[in-house]
Amino acid sequence: MSGPTQRTSIELYRDLLRLIHHIAPGTSPKSLALRTLVRSEFDKSKSLSPSSPSDAIKIESLKANAVRALSNYMLYEGGIQDRGRGGKLGKAMDSFHRRSLDGMNDKSDGLQHSQRQQQQQSQQQQQQSGSEDDGRRRQHDEDHSDATKSSRES
Q1: Annotated region Disordered: where (predicted)?
Q2: Among 17, 53, 115, 149, which residue's Cβ finds the most Cβ atoms within 10 Å?
Q3: Alpha helices (runs of H) in 1-154, residue ranges in sequence order
């Protein structure tokens, strides 16, 4: 079995547009969305030169991104259709979405909890420093009153 064939950017772009035409013929919203998605990935490489080694790597990466974008879209659409039929992909997508939201809620709850803890700690520190200041003031007042009494007695 041979390795994957290398396609030029133009060949890949044409192949992807043919695939989009097969998936969503005409000018339907789905077709327009897919074409825009693929076109935007290829537009990112307009300023790059294939003869430059560093640009060649970037171009390959952008080509892979275009293919990945189309496959992710198709996977998402398949999951939505599968959900209505009670399929595993739709259930897995729902489960992933629910876990993601729960994780975000847990993180925000954790942030709120840590912020409350920080506020409580700072309040406790302020109270402790305030009570230390009160003790110093009392000691100063007592020392001052003792000095005043002794000066009056003499």
Answers
A1: 79-154
A2: 17
A3: 9-23, 29-43, 53-84, 88-153
Go through the chain and tell me how many residues it has.
154
As for how many domains the chain has, the answer is: 2
Lookup: tokens for 37: 């998605």
Find the domain containing 124 and state its range.
98-149
Q: Cα separation of 12 and 42, whole Å?
A: 10
State whether 73 and 105 are in the same domain.
no
Enter the DSSP assignment of 5. P
**Token pair in block for residue 31:** 């077709």
CA distance 151 to 146: 9
Distance CA 91, CA 87 (A): 7
pLDDT of residue 1: 44
56, 86, 116 — which closes off a domain?
A: 86
In degrees, to the nearest 5, what angle opens at C-alpha 97 toward C-alphas 93 and 102? Answer: 150
Q: Which amino acid, 149?
A: K
DSSP 42-84: HHTTTT--TTSHHHHHHHHHHHHHHHHHHHHHHHHHHHHHHHH
Which stretches in the chain have pLDDT values below 50?
A: 1-2
Please, is 20 exposed, middle or buried when counting C-beta atoms within 10 Å of its C-beta (0-12, 13-18, 19+)? buried
